[in-house]
């Protein structure tokens, strides 16, 4: 054991391949279905909005997929990201537990999202695409794709969930600084946006609605492709660099995690850290407890149904088998905008169904309390989404203290909160409250799940 705080890898240790957990699953993922025929879709069904290279990654069962050199060259701007031992937080908690976090806030956009944004921009540029459309919740994904688009000469249009558009002006400014256009969703620019505004003029928006708008734009314009920041297999694939680096860095620390934690909205940062560890377990390795933390106001894994559903509100996407609250579910406007999604990645959902991971739902006041305690100990202000992981890491450390067990806890600090300070200001002013979803609204939404048989 060492007394180090930070564990760094040199640039040459940036992973050369992405890890694909599909290769190690005990059974293949459920097929993605055409909503009209209920038959599995083929590559041609996705070619209107994705390049074939990403479609191939989406369905690949190869364990390792090579990272192109131009992508690795951009990764060098911030990767490998540091692994940090939270020694000051451990002391503040007076816990025998050891707490480590993988810090993804060192990227130019301030979160883990560029790990896939750069890859997606590269493959689209290679395919001759000149424009990308996308959605964003809190703005981390939108700013990351804007950053990647600026590097590869792509025009980027971002539909930002309206409540977040109003809450987070500096995220919008960051996207515009990188050259992107940012539009509050639902908007008057698309047919689905106009339809929603006609029925709900004061709609706060949702990720499902913003996805509908971005997909509509991509499907109707030959020069435009759609880019998604979470949920899909190829997105989680690209994020696997996080866990691969963490495994090497934990070896440097002479330690092995007993508990692995990540916040979960669509599943990308959680999978990025957890999937390499789950893959090792499935191949006969160690079996840590793995916890996906979600907001109590949008508890997809905890309260959703494992069923086929659309990925968007306007039903423009294929049907995916996943834990879902129903495509029509609109969560309350709590501050962790990146976790306000009705569904969950099909791969994360499958692992939940297999019992390989567990879910925990937490309220936002406890999360901000944990984020502030973390900031006052470790100096990093976490994004509201990341405070969910911090909350459960602290809870696990306190449980270890209560039990007198020296657990090793590893969590993903998926981004900093420097563009989310209004949320902290609202917390200090007593303006935040714990929000619960509407049970009747949830049941109505679940009752409208499409029949997939």
TrEMBL record:
<dbReference type="InterPro" id="IPR006654">
    <property type="entry name" value="Trp_synth_beta"/>
</dbReference>
<dbReference type="InterPro" id="IPR023026">
    <property type="entry name" value="Trp_synth_beta/beta-like"/>
</dbReference>
<keyword id="KW-0057">Aromatic amino acid biosynthesis</keyword>
<comment type="pathway">
    <text>Amino-acid biosynthesis; L-tryptophan biosynthesis; L-tryptophan from chorismate: step 5/5.</text>
</comment>
<dbReference type="Pfam" id="PF00291">
    <property type="entry name" value="PALP"/>
</dbReference>
<comment type="function">
    <text>The beta subunit is responsible for the synthesis of L-tryptophan from indole and L-serine.</text>
</comment>
<dbReference type="InterPro" id="IPR006316">
    <property type="entry name" value="Trp_synth_b-like"/>
</dbReference>
<comment type="similarity">
    <text>Belongs to the TrpB family.</text>
</comment>
<keyword id="KW-0028">Amino-acid biosynthesis</keyword>
<dbReference type="InterPro" id="IPR036052">
    <property type="entry name" value="TrpB-like_PALP_sf"/>
</dbReference>
<feature type="domain" description="Tryptophan synthase beta chain-like PALP">
    <location>
        <begin position="77"/>
        <end position="415"/>
    </location>
</feature>
<feature type="modified residue" description="N6-(pyridoxal phosphate)lysine">
    <location>
        <position position="113"/>
    </location>
</feature>
<keyword id="KW-0456">Lyase</keyword>
<dbReference type="InterPro" id="IPR006653">
    <property type="entry name" value="Trp_synth_b_CS"/>
</dbReference>
<keyword id="KW-0663">Pyridoxal phosphate</keyword>
<keyword id="KW-0822">Tryptophan biosynthesis</keyword>
<comment type="subunit">
    <text>Tetramer of two alpha and two beta chains.</text>
</comment>
<protein>
    <recommendedName>
        <fullName>Tryptophan synthase beta chain</fullName>
        <ecNumber>4.2.1.20</ecNumber>
    </recommendedName>
</protein>
<dbReference type="InterPro" id="IPR001926">
    <property type="entry name" value="TrpB-like_PALP"/>
</dbReference>
<dbReference type="GO" id="GO:0004834">
    <property type="term" value="F:tryptophan synthase activity"/>
</dbReference>
């Amino acid at each position: 054991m060492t007394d180090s705080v930070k564990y760094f890898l040199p640039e040459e240790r940036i992973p050369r391949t992405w890890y694909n957990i599909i290769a190690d699953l005990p059974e293949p993922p459920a097929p993605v279905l055409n909503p009209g025929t209920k038959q599995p879709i083929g590559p041609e069904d996705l070619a209107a909005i994705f390049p074939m290279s990403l479609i191939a990654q989406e369905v690949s069962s190869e364990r390792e997929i090579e990272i192109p050199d131009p992508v690795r060259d951009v990764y060098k701007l911030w990767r490998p990201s540091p692994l940090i031992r939270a020694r000051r937080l451990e002391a503040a908690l007076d816990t025998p537990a050891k707490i480590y976090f993988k810090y993804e806030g060192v990227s130019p956009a301030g979160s883990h999202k560029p790990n896939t944004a750069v890859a997606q921009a590269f493959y689209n540029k290679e395919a001759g695409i000149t424009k990308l459309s996308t959605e964003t919740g809190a703005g981390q994904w939108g700013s990351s794709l804007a950053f990647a688009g600026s590097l590869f000469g792509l025009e980027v249009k971002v539909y930002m969930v309206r409540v977040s558009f109003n809450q987070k002006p500096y995220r919008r400014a960051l996207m515009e600084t990188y050259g992107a256009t940012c539009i509050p969703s639902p908007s008057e620019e698309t047919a689905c946006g106009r339809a929603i505004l006609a029925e709900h003029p004061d709609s706060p928006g949702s990720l499902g609605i913003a996805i509908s708008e971005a997909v509509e734009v991509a499907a109707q314009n030959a020069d435009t492709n759609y880019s998604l920041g979470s949920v899909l297999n190829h997105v989680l694939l690209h994020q696997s660099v996080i866990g691969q680096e963490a495994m090497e860095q934990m070896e440097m620390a002479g330690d092995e995690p007993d508990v692995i934690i990540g916040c979960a909205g669509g599943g990308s940062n959680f999978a990025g850290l957890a999937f390499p560890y789950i893959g090792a377990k499935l191949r006969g390795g160690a079996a840590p407890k793995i916890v996906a933390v979600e907001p109590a106001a949008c508890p997809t894994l905890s309260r959703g149904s494992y069923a086929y559903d659309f990925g968007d509100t306007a039903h423009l996407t294929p049907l995916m088998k996943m834990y879902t609250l129903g495509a029509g579910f609109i969560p309350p406007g709590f501050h962790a905008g990146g976790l306000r999604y009705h569904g969950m990645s099909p791969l994360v959902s499958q692992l939940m169904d297999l019992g390989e991971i567990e879910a925990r739902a937490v309220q936002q006041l406890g999360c901000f309390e944990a984020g502030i305690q973390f900031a006052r100990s470790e100096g990093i202000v976490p994004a509201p989404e990341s405070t969910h992981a911090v909350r459960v890491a602290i809870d696990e450390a306190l449980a270890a203290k209560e039990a007198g067990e020296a657990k090793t806890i590893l969590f993903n600090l998926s981004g900093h909160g420097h563009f989310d300070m209004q949320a902290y200001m609202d917390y200090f002013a007593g303006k935040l409250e714990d929000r619960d979803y509407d049970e009747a609204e949830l049941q109505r939404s679940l009752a409208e799940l499409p029949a997939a048989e």
